[in-house]
Amino acid sequence: MKIKINDLMQQSGVKFGTSGARGLAVEMTDKVCYTYAKGFLQYLEEDGQLKKRGESVAIAGDLRPSTGRIMAAVAKAASDMGYVPINCGRIPSPAVALYGLENACPSIMVTGSHIPADRNGIKFNKCTGEILKHDEEQIREQVVEVDDTIFGGSEFTLPEENIDARTNYVKRYTTTFPDDCLNGKKIGIYQHSAVGRDVLIEIFSGLGADVTPLGFSDTFIPVDTEAIRAEDVALAREWSTENKFDAIISTDGDSDRPLISDEKGVWLRGDVAGILAAKYMGADSVSTPVSCNTALEKCEWFEDIRRTRIGSPFVVASMIEASFAGRKGVVGYEANGGFLTNSDFAIAGKELRALPTRDAVLPVLAIILLSIQERKTISALLAGLPQRFTASDRIQDFPTENSRLILQKFEDISAINEAFGESFGPIKSIDNTDGLRITFQSMEVLHMRPSGNAPEFRCYNEADSEERVQEMQGISMEILLKLKG
User: Fold this and answer.
1) Over the range 327-361, which residues count as b (16 or more CB within 10 Å of their CB) and which as e?
2) Domains along the chain?
3) Which is catalytic among the residues 113, 193, 287, 392?
4) I want to staple 363 with a disulfide (CB 3.0 to 4.6 A). Which of 8, 276, 277, 427 is the partner?
5) Cα-Cα-Cα-Cα dihedral sign, residues 278, 281, 285, 288
6) Low pLDDT (below 50) residues in the chain
7) pLDDT value of residue 300
């Protein structure tokens, strides 16, 4: 039978976009996952990015219970199309993306990132990197031939695991940065259920750090680096007090988004971490979404700053434009901490190749090295930034359609004033780049948008003090929850 990818989105409940396919694990059947993978590879064929059968397709996954089954369905699709599926195992998203870039082959990561364990997803990378918006549009138009008789019998199986992608990702850091560059640093690694938990230990101990593993979990924990759980805030402070760490580091489920704390166990916001990492890298161009902290502009460290819509494909597209414009030190980052590079960088006389996809290792390594370079604690690095503070929260299990109804209500400025004017004052400007971003005359910010990859309504605030931004966040969420009904 023939299935159009656009129709499959509606029929299956598994949505597809530039972040890949995501949905409930029970809805991500073998047939659905097989069809999405086949549609992606078929698009690469038609676009001339896959030139002959027999080429490799790299496949990896996170530690969710449903991941192995989905990886096997994806591998079956690649094999049935005449390609060679390479089972890269359970490794970080940037590790399999790097393998694809180095071997000029597409890579597919089975992960739901930070969302709960009852959900999962499939992230697609071309031979040259992440799929972008125009790729998504073409993939959705693909009509795929599917043989129903292959489903419903025995489970599909994966090829024997190939460790090259994991090995090369570790070597990216341990052979580029000096092997003693973290000597004397005491680092806690919050493992939980992150797929890169052992990779982090290997990299940071390999660079000389005194590493202590923390919080290992056999049960999947949905750690969201952009909306950190209260229990993770408490754990970091407790661990830091007990162990006197210089920093605690961690990642989300597929280990492409980092968490890093200061020496007091206070987690850094991802958009502040991005500024410090870009400074260490010596970037001359920074691309970042409109939701990120405006300390980026206020610090005046960077020649070229480009604001984008939220989502790594938009950051990637912006970085590509910056490189075309002649910039030589091009980086990007997101509010979730994911850090991307579109230029090669010189590190202690060696070359760190560009990796234009979210990475969790480089930003935390860069911040710790910046603290060593400037002989400051991480909290002192933060104190040296213009004091702008951000906070974010979300309404979970909230359909995108309902989120859009709220934004439609605020198309009328009087409705914004009625809802928020008493708490935040008069409006200075409105930005509709991605959702609704309101800057008030006080220069305080409220930004609202539907999540692009989960049924959530995101709320971001920015103010001149931690106390005020937390107060704004509480007020904003209280108002939005009332509107939710």
Assistant:
1) bebbbbbbbbbbbbbbbebebeeeebebbbbbbbb
2) 2-167 (3.40.120.10), 186-383 (3.40.120.10), 389-484 (3.30.310.50)
3) 113
4) 277
5) negative
6) none
7) 96
